[in-house]
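[Solved] Which block belongs to which protein?

Original post:
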Amino acid sequence: MRPTIILTTLLLMTLTAMAQAVDIWQGHPGHKRVEMTPYTVPGEGHRAVIVCPGGSYFWHDIDTEGHRVAQWLQQNGIAAFVLKYRVAGIPAFITHYRLLWRGNRYPDPQDDLLQALRYVRNHAQDYGINPDSVGAMGFSAGGHLVMSGAELFAPDERPAFVAPIYPVVTMTDDCVHKRSRRALLGDSRMGDQALRDSLSLERHVPADCPPVFLVNCQDDPIVDYRNSVLLDSALTAQGVPHLYLQYRTGGHGFGASDSKGTAECRQWRARFVQWLSTL
């Protein structure tokens, strides 16, 4: 009976956390509901991380790259907020209806991340966090999202730190992840070279970029590992404080799982906690 009790308790904890989701756009007329789930830590003055799951900007890997990540951060004394930012959606993946109708596309996900940062900072006292220590962590396309926040937002609105994990980076280089590019740009803007350039993160790293924790694997079969190499080179050229961990094995999509990926790549979690403590 003991395993059953444990599983039931974990399920109830998860359902409780999900029931506490907030609408970050509540009170803003004209905005669709965008949910964010808080995982708070007792006490005050904690660091916080907005977690952005991957999914090629078409969907969300809300479990492995969302709630499990938040639970792991919470267990390490770091408040976490899982952001279900706007994505293109399955219909847009299956069809090309966005040739005729706008649908969700850039800058919708970026607007959601910016609003999430504002929301968390404005409610810092309610959540027991330090408003000056709110960072963002993203996976795959979510990694592109958090890194774009570090580069494209106004300096006083950027995350305090960012952790792009096996991120999509470029929209122009031959190692581009085409599915993410299509989802983010929208079918009607696929030929917009200026927009592609503006969202190629290796081209727009500012000298005052917040600290970056970057992770990927050489054997990634989804997002070419050279995306992170491009970003690392750009961060180095600008003198941005960052740590780049390139693992030999692990693939893609392991998030905070204890079974996905490899033992090698799963070391990233301990390294992140260690890195964060040095900031």
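(Second protein starts here: sequence line, then its structure tokens.)
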Amino acid sequence: MTPRALVLPLAAAIWGGFGCKARAANDQPKIDVPPPAEQIAGAVLAAPEDRREGATVLGYGTDGAVKIVRKGTNDLICLADAPQKKGFQAACYHKELDPYMARGRALRTEGVTDGAKNRETRWKEIDEGKLAMPKQPRTLYVLHGKGFDAEKGEVTEPYLRWVIFTPYATPESTGLSTSPGPSAPWLMFPGTAGAHIMINPPRS
């Protein structure tokens, strides 16, 4: 699998908003969701170990809506795995990225499910000063797997990726290539409000 192919599942999550629905939450049938403690246990595994205990955790209600299941004390927000989706995906990100992430989820709820349109809408809102976006680099962690073993507290076949948002960064300002290479960091969407450094470690 090529480095760019590895990016696609993550890209859909970042640019379209993690764990979102195309319809409003009140139009959704009731779904089975894990108890809050289980959602929290899985979500924080995406964060560095020394940041997990203090992270705020967003989980899901039976209507599929995102809600706070634990208020934290540090600068990380973790989003639990969406129970209605196959496999496992949790994400943790700096709290200053929350307006950007929340807006992506809201747009999907409004029906903006196309990834390109979703991200470009947010970029335009950032350019116009309507959507907050940190000016300094902020990190997003994304943990994928085949599933989550609640009894062991482990993700099956885990794969962790890093994304460092650097709005309006360019190859000239960072020294980075815009082409992915094996495990090497590279710059995606240079010059835009959503510019970010991708770091995809080799799969074991």
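Accepted answer:
You had them paired correctly. Confirming on the second one: The first strand starts at residue 56 and ends at 60.
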